[in-house]
Every structure is written in structure tokens, then in C-alpha cells.
From TrEMBL, chains A, B:
Its cofactor is Mg(2+). It comes from the Bacteria. PROSITE patterns: POLYPRENYL_SYNTHASE_1 (PS00723). This is Octaprenyl diphosphate synthase. Keywords: Magnesium, Metal-binding, Transferase. The keyword Metal-binding applies. It holds the Pfam family polyprenyl_synt.
């Protein structure tokens, strides 16, 4: 099945790509990639094996790119600090993915078999811990207590978001507010922290830190909302994991929150049976997708993502126009355009 | 079954207790306990629930006690720094236990049902991550980059030790050297770091930092060796987990390394079947204990622990005599006396 989220592209989304942003930080990212490779090294052979299985599977590395770009936006001179913090951010992300696979009992990640299937839950947990430790070591080397404060706080907020998600899982009564608290923690907080440390390194005033943080936070929310829509409306290729994983795991995401709210009694009974009681039968995923389309909630989810995208755009208003700012703005459109 | 590790007490072990050490740092530990309680707090109710299940189960809190005592030994004035680092160390330990339970698929921990049985693997992983994040936040508040460096490096070394243990698991050809590398990482490194940050806070010279680190490292090795002996020779009460857990998990510990080395061909076949192939039958644990006693390897393991205890004792030689030093020396004897 092809691309099925039934929404029109916004005018700025039509041609949006990450190309400009990627080109802008290409030198820095080459150093980030070298750093990532060298810091996954260990005499314990299983560690680089497991870490590189995930790292080499080619995520977009959006978070470290954002760190470098926000540092650049704030006139950072381009030392090793931003490179190390960017690598730290990517390690924190990778550690979260490894731990998430155990939590979600996932079989697939970034289009590959999940590490936990290949090496076991225990390796996923421990290699995640190793990468988290390495992330903190690099932050310490950079020596900015403010950046350490932001990223260590992010680590706890991410874990809180994930635990919140556990609690909300299978609960079809989850409100939109509850759901937003979950994704602010589990996804958007790391985007926010990744952006915020840029101006911190550049030693820019608090209002620029706040602006970059707000950009990252809103971009992160938009990004997650699109992911949630793609889980029901996209293809496995676009998603890098199995379509319908959220459904099979009983994960309550915004499309479900909205569908439950708008739904008929029969539909609610369907959601309760499948997501709450975990009683999923042949054809239920197709039925779920049909309901979501009928109720227009995938388009509604993308529309919410656009609203957060607009907030991210607004957050950058204080910064003077320029190539970096333009590229960061285009990244918003790109994240939303993934839904098409 | 009572106490069965067949070794004589050393003269100094006869009356050894932690009482002096505990009394010495009682004020500080009261503040550590308050800090621990307040820092497990979260709006996400499941977090304090899971964290406190383990934290309130009353471990000895040996590691934070060591941080306070080593700071005291080095003339630290007694500010909030040591309290926060001590609480960080305990959080790192608790996070490790939560993750270990998932890795080992344990049912019991500190005499209680393991958190992962009550709340699931996912909660154990995520609450461990939360505590690790909180540990780093407290370290950042203390503001010592040197202490942050020591503890973040410890986090990676611990994970490396645990992964090494995974690799060594079920491999009866594991050498004593391989085994020592495992326990240096998974256990002794945190003891070493807990001790080392004391003189760092007190801003004492490198040689005192090295001395405290060496004390902690050797004490940690001795501690783990006794634990390994108790797993075959102690009682569940003394151990806080099920006797024979290591055996059932195919964990290769020093008693096994020695027994395999000294063993007859029939005994080696027994170890291969039970530990390597995981084919454990009724009565095998009793048989394992009988072999270990016959080969005298539990006594040999305790003897090795005494040697590391002697190294820990020697490490403190540079420090002037006094109540704190005496109490730290007695702690060595206490750790070894657990085997009786």
C-alpha cells in the first residue's frame, strides 16, 4: 500500500527537504560521525557490534544536525564542543531506541531486525547503558556545566515520558493533554535539549537559549505527531519499522485519542477490544485504518503537527534572516512533508 | 541449611561490623536518605513506586557510606556536595540492579520479589534510566567536573563489565583473568569511584585520590568474591536473593573457574552440561555444591577475597591513623566475614 495519509501538502512543504541543512553542517557532521564511531569502541567486542548495528542503519541524525545548526545560528565559532555535544545527543537517542525495543518488544527498527532479537534483551539494555555513559563522558569533556544540566535533565524527562506512555498504554480514555505530555517527554525534550545547547556553547543570552529550545520542542512534537500518523497511514519503508506497530502494542497515539473521542459506540468498543484488551484478530489493522480515515483523524493529526510547526517557526523570529535560519525553517516543513 | 562456607574466620574478622562506619557517617547518611527520597519523586506515579520498592528494601547502602567516609577521611568540610554525590552513587547502583534484573531474568532481589516481576521489564528499564538521569543531575549540581568525569567513566565501565559477563556466561573455559575483568567492571568500579570522589571533593592531591580509588577497587573485588561464594554456600537470607541463582543462570564465577580447573573429566562434563548447555536436573544444585566443597574452591575463593582485602588495607597506608581510617579498615573485615 502506498502513501495514504489523505492530506494536502502545505505550499511550503511541497519541495521541502533537509538538503540545505545537511549541506550547512556537513563538515561538522563528518566529525560527529567519526566521533560516534570512535566512542562506540570498546575492548568488549559485543558493544561496538550491537551499537553499530543500530547506528550504521542510517537514521537521519536529525538531532545532532540540530545541535550543530543551532550552534551555528548563534555564531558558535566551530570548536570541538558542538561536535561532542552533537555526538552525545545522538548517543542518548540511540540508547533510548535500544531500551525502547526492549520495552516495546519490537522486532524491527530502522528497517532492520531489532538488536534485541539478534543479541537479546540483555545486550540492548546494557549497550544502551554504555552509550548513555559515553554520552555523559563526552559532555564532561566539553566542560559546560550548563550544557550538562540541560542534557542530564533531558535524560530524566525522556524516561518520565516513556513511563507515562507505559501507564497510558492500553487506556483508551487517554486525553489529548495526557498524550501531549507523553510525547513532550519521550520525543520532544531531546529535540529541545539538542537545540538549546547550541546557544549555550556560543555563550548567547538566555532569550536565545529559550528561542532555540522552543524551536526544538515544537519541532519534536510535530515530528512525533507525523510518526504517529504514518504508523497507520504510511508504508514500512517510509517508517523504518512495521506499519501498525503502535496498534499491535496497544499504544495510544493522537489518531486514536481523536478517533475515540469522535467515534460511535461500536467504534469505541472496537478500540477497547483491540487496544485495551489486546484482542486483535485478522483484519483488525485494516479496520482500524479504515475507521481512522473515515473519521478524518489522520488529517487532523497532520493539521496539529502543522500548528506545532508554526510555533517552531515563530520561535526563530528573534534570529536575523540567513542561510542557517532558512534551513532550520525548511526542516520544519520537511518533517511535516514526511506524511505525504 | 545454615552457614556452610567452610573457612576459618581471620582474627580481625571475628568481631568485625559496620557499626563504627555507620555511626561515623550517620548525620550525612540521614541527609543522603532524604535526598534519595526526594529525588525519586516524579509526577509520574509509577516512578517512585518502582524506585522505592527497591530502595526501601534496605540494602546496606555501603557505596554512599564509602563516599561520605572517604570525604571525611580526606578532611572534607561536610557540605552538600558529598551528600549529593553519595546519593548519585546509590542511584547508579539502584539503576544497575533494576537493569540487571532484566538481564538476569531474576525473580527475587534483596529478599523481595524483583521489580520486573511486579511491574514488568519495561518499568525496570525505564525507572533505571530515570534514576541514572537523576544521578547525573545531582552530580551536575555539585559542579565538580572531576567528580563528573570519574562517575560518568564508571557508568561506562560498569556497562562494559556487564556485557563482558554476558559474553563469558555459559563459557566454562573462562579464565580467572577474564572473570576478574568482569567483576572489576560490574562491581568494583563503582566502589572505586564512590571512594575516589571523596578526596576529589576535599580537593586533595592526586595520590590521595589514587589511594581511595585503590581501596574501593580492592574492597569491591573482595565483596563480589564473597558474594560469589555465598551463592553456593550461604543462605538466601544472608544473600537477599535465591541461593543458586548464579548456577541456574549459567553464570561463571570464581568458584566455578577454580572447580573447572581442578576438576576431574566427569566434573567438567557436569559443569558443561549444567552451565554451558543449561541442562539442569533435579539435584544438580546440591551436586554442584558438593563438588565445590570437595574441591575446596569456596574456601579458596574466600582466601582470594582476603588477599584483595589486604590490598585494600594497604591502600589506606598513606592516611594518618584515626577513627575514620579504623572504621574503613573494619569494613574490609566485615565484607569478608559475610562468608561465615
Amino acid at each position: 500500500m502506498g502513501v495514504v495519509v489523505p492530506v494536502e501538502k502545505g505550499p511550503s512543504e511541497a519541495e521541502a527537504s533537509l538538503n540545505d541543512l545537511v549541506a550547512l553542517v556537513a563538515d561538522g557532521m563528518a566529525r560527529v560521525n567519526t566521533t560516534i564511531l570512535s566512542r562506540t569502541g570498546s575492548e568488549v567486542a559485543m558493544i561496538p557490534e550491537v551499537a553499530n548495528h543500530l547506528i550504521s542503519s542510517g537514521g537521519k541524525r536529525l538531532r545532532p544536525i540540530l545541535t550543530l545548526a543551532c550552534a551555528d545560528l548563534c555564531g558558535y565559532a566551530g570548536g570541538e564542543g558542538a561536535v561532542k555535544l552533537a555526538a552525545s545527543v545522538e548517543f542518548m537517542h540511540t540508547a533510548t531506541l535500544l531500551h525502547d525495543d526492549v520495552v516495546d518488544e519490537s522486532d524491527m527498527r530502522r528497517g532492520r531486525i531489532a538488536a534485541r532479537i539478534k543479541w537479546g534483551n540483555e545486550a540492548s539494555v546494557l549497550v544502551g547503558d554504555f552509550l548513555l555513559g559515553q554520552a555523559f563522558r563526552m559532555m564532561v569533556e566539553v566542560g559546560s556545566l550548563k550544557a550538562l544540566d540541560i542534557l542530564s535533565a533531558a535524560a530524566t524527562v525522556i524516561a518520565e515520558g516513556e513511563v507515562m506512555q507505559l501507564t497510558a498504554a492500553k487506556n483508551t480514555e487517554t486525553t489529548e493533554e495526557d498524550y501531549l505530555a507523553v510525547i513532550r517527554g519521550k520525543t520532544a525534550e531531546l529535540f529541545a535539549a539538542a537545540c538549546e545547547v547550541g546557544p549555550v556553547l556560543a555563550e548567547r543570552p538566555q532569550d536565545e537559549q529559550d528561542a532555540c529550545r522552543a524551536y526544538g520542542m515544537n519541532l519534536g512534537i510535530a515530528f512525533q505527531l507525523i510518526d504517529d500518523a504514518l504508523d497507520y497511514g504510511g508504508t514500512s519503508d517510509a517508517l523504518g519499522k512495521n506499519v501498525g506497530d503502535d496498534f499491535r502494542e496497544g499504544k495510544i497515539t493522537l489518531p486514536i485519542v481523536l478517533a475515540f473521542r469522535h467515534g460511535s459506540e461500536a467504534e469505541r468498543a472496537f478500540w477497547r477490544r483491540t487496544l485495551q484488551d489486546g484482542e486483535i484478530r485478522e483484519g483488525d489493522l485494516e479496520e482500524a485504518r479504515a475507521i481512522l480515515h473515515r473519521r478524518g483523524v489522520l488529517a487532523e493529526t497532520v493539521e496539529r503537527a502543522r500548528q506545532y510547526g508554526a510555533l517552531a517557526r515563530e520561535a526563530l523570529a528573534p534570529f536575523a534572516p540567513g542561510r542557517t535560519k532558512d534551513a532550520l525553517l525548511e526542516a520544519i516543513d520537511f518533517c511535516i512533508a514526511r506524511a505525504h
